[in-house]
Input
Amino acid sequence: MRKHNQIFINMDFTLSFETAVGFSLFASLLTVCYIFRSWTPYANKNIESLEKLPEAEGAWPIIGHFHLFCGKKLPHVVLGSMAEKYGPIFAIKLGAQKAVVVSDWKVAKECFSSNDKVFLNRPKSIGAEVMAYNYAMSGLGPYGPYWKKMRKITRELLSVNHMEMFEHLRKSEIKDSMEDIYDLWLKNRSCQNHMVNIDMNEWFGCLTMNIVLRMMVGQRYNWTDEKGIQFSKLVRYFSEQVGSFVLRDYVSVLRWLDWGGFEKAMRKAAEETDYILNGWLREHKQRRKLKDEQHDIMDMLLSRIYGATSQDFEGFDPDIVVKATSLAFISGAAESTRVTLKWTVSLLISNPHVLKKARDELNNHVGSRRVEESDIKNLVYLQAIFKESMRLYPAAPLLPPRESIEDCVVSGYNVPKDTRLIVNVSKIHRDPQVWPDPDEFRPERFLTSHQNIDVKGNHYELLPFGSGRRMCPGIFLGLRIMQLAIASLIHGFEFEKADDEPDDSSAPVGLTDYVTHCKILLKPIISVKNEVPTNS
Output
């Protein structure tokens, strides 16, 4: 499945001849409604407060600035170019709604510190309604008592202490995945100068999914397992849909018409995903009755809601809460981690001098044994590599949008209630005033001029996980998986770009998943199993 963030604007907005004819039949009516609404006191009550904020030109009736996103460039690239013209903070129209676009770390700091309580809401979206159990997934849901309760539970479940409990699972999965590659090399080492061609996108996807599933529900899949492949596709589709920047969320008539059948497809995928989650939930409940719990995260969730009713969760059925939280955990941890791992390997292949330094560091600190999580704290150059990789290619170039719950002031401008906040981290991460030679992959910057900057939401120049109360709660887990996986790969194998892998030099700035593959040629350089690899 091709990464949806490359095509969703065109799929949802580009009009075929047939849809253009249909559009013409109601365009006049919509325009009249739009003009009438713009005259009403309700629509105008906050407009004056936004007039001082720089507003992008060229908004169209009904759709606002969406027509600007219909080309080949991705939304964060388009918004980055607009920031060059309108400044670090400006307003755009999404349908009839205003949004504030932030492209500067100082302004982002103001939004996520002094105004963090104001920007706690999430805007509504069709994806979150249809595929996230009608906003039962708290990360996509509105601010309120339910969100507060689930945030507390989620932070507890993803705490450092709890994640340490699952270290043996992460270690086991990475070990097994490394041995899978080694076995493949043994079978194919006679070709391509004793190297084997591996699709790392597939390998990383299987690895991250299995780590997360074992922690969440005690399950795992093989590369060729049809059920595993199908579930991985469903999770990826879910991540694409709920994270899409699409016109149908801003012009309600498009949902009513369901052009392209997007909502129908989402409902079908939601049913398939729910069927799988229901199966796992039934198994856990049955084991709970038999007092045979696995002590995975779903078990921990069930323990915390045992005996609860829908009234305890603001109208949500407790089973729905468990399934929504489980899906959030699986999709958030597996997909973003896969994308970052894939980009890190691509950058290492394109910069062999960095790869050599990383391998030398591993040889000095680890030697010939396997890499352990306890080694990571000593691998400072490896940590710098990940910071630089996430700076150049954050998993979410645009942070998930927020919405103001009351009027506020940002950077001297009045921002009214119900205004959407879009933070362009891709633009922030490439600010030449903060990052000299911003388009270059240079991990050394995090050992010298930027050595005190981390990715934990405390430094607003680098926000791959967001910041404030709505930042990603799984940051510790994500870093542990990524660092141990890449360290093990670098330490265990030599690798280089496969001949049939496309060149990434022309990839758009900040694009996180521009191809469906990440093929490399590799061969072992230390004993991955209890055997010493040879080149003969």
